[in-house]
């Protein structure tokens, strides 16, 4: 197959819920979902906390959720988008439940709503401590019933095919045939996730290399506020672990305390909400504390919490800590901030449409205006659901995207790609680690007033030149392509790329 009606890049919640919506409303559409790894290997699968929504109007209000989101975003949110997402949240959550997702309830039958940092009320719908895993499972199971959806796993998207400011598909590498091929589409929808692998310490899986944003940038789509990278305050501190294991915000919502080596609850020195301040505040407090003490980590104290209730709510976290030699009911959990979420991305309007004709984006690769400078906990899965619905509705209403057949303008490369030599792979790995180390120091330096920021920026520029030269002179390899994408985004971050645009 080299032509399709709708092409979805990515198989997390943003991609799968959009494909499902289009398949439901447009049974005549052929929908291809292209993903670089297994279909369930996504950032979504690793989401622990849950989805924020006003599901109990006796204790919560839409205005409260809106205000919490705006406050967390530090003045950079689009208030119209925030209102739209929050107001449509309950309906989209009910729909997710109808698709087969299961969320925790109290013995009374009410939703067991969690509390997380930055939220003024308990409003987090969750499935124990593996909400994303449950959502991914439910969506993949639901999609099996549609005969107009086709999965292409282990296909790596290299670049968008663009003609006259119109996206007509993607150039990709087929890992099985070892060939570079073209897939043409009436409409292309980017749901490629984030870019946490730019940094040395991240909760993101190794596939999170910013592919969608980099491709869109090279195709001249507008990129907005990519320098707003959220560091999650509490990743399990184990040296040289990539990705780092996330200790959900919900653990602090359940009463866990952050302490320094002396046992002091230091976050209250930085904000009156203490451990339940927004993620940027708590991460900054930890960074500052580590600078003062010279320690490598701080500690999460769960020893006072009810063992039975904690294990029931956080079985994955309990087991992962046990494997690391930590008994969460007797020992302190070593934690440190880690790159977690890309708040900026491809600029889109309220329907997820980019500035390129027939190109949409959603999820972590997109900048919808919801998160501003700092995402409110558990708003990301919600954003993906709401924008998938809005995009699918517009796509179905448009029906005819009007793409001409441009196959002749983009010939496929029929040759089989030769295997890359081990020594070349070692070079790519070394360059990736160098980039990650520089970006980690650069980003943390922004919080500490490091005077060497320009030197670090110049190192990124030098690495970019070296990597681009390698890409242009070496045989294709996914590792090299991912490295190119990472350094492209690193350049946007250190240059603090902004786009003062409004997409209608």
From TrEMBL:
<feature type="domain" description="FAD-dependent oxidoreductase 2 FAD-binding">
    <location>
        <begin position="5"/>
        <end position="381"/>
    </location>
</feature>
<comment type="similarity">
    <text>Belongs to the FAD-dependent oxidoreductase 2 family. NadB subfamily.</text>
</comment>
<dbReference type="GO" id="GO:0008734">
    <property type="term" value="F:L-aspartate oxidase activity"/>
</dbReference>
<comment type="function">
    <text>Catalyzes the oxidation of L-aspartate to iminoaspartate.</text>
</comment>
<dbReference type="InterPro" id="IPR027477">
    <property type="entry name" value="Succ_DH/fumarate_Rdtase_cat_sf"/>
</dbReference>
<keyword id="KW-0274">FAD</keyword>
<dbReference type="InterPro" id="IPR005288">
    <property type="entry name" value="NadB"/>
</dbReference>
<keyword id="KW-0285">Flavoprotein</keyword>
<keyword id="KW-0560">Oxidoreductase</keyword>
<dbReference type="GO" id="GO:0009435">
    <property type="term" value="P:NAD+ biosynthetic process"/>
</dbReference>
<dbReference type="InterPro" id="IPR003953">
    <property type="entry name" value="FAD-dep_OxRdtase_2_FAD-bd"/>
</dbReference>
<keyword id="KW-0662">Pyridine nucleotide biosynthesis</keyword>
<dbReference type="Pfam" id="PF00890">
    <property type="entry name" value="FAD_binding_2"/>
</dbReference>
<dbReference type="InterPro" id="IPR036188">
    <property type="entry name" value="FAD/NAD-bd_sf"/>
</dbReference>
<dbReference type="GO" id="GO:0005737">
    <property type="term" value="C:cytoplasm"/>
</dbReference>
<feature type="active site" description="Proton acceptor">
    <location>
        <position position="279"/>
    </location>
</feature>
<protein>
    <recommendedName>
        <fullName>L-aspartate oxidase</fullName>
        <ecNumber>1.4.3.16</ecNumber>
    </recommendedName>
</protein>
<comment type="pathway">
    <text>Cofactor biosynthesis; NAD(+) biosynthesis; iminoaspartate from L-aspartate (oxidase route): step 1/1.</text>
</comment>
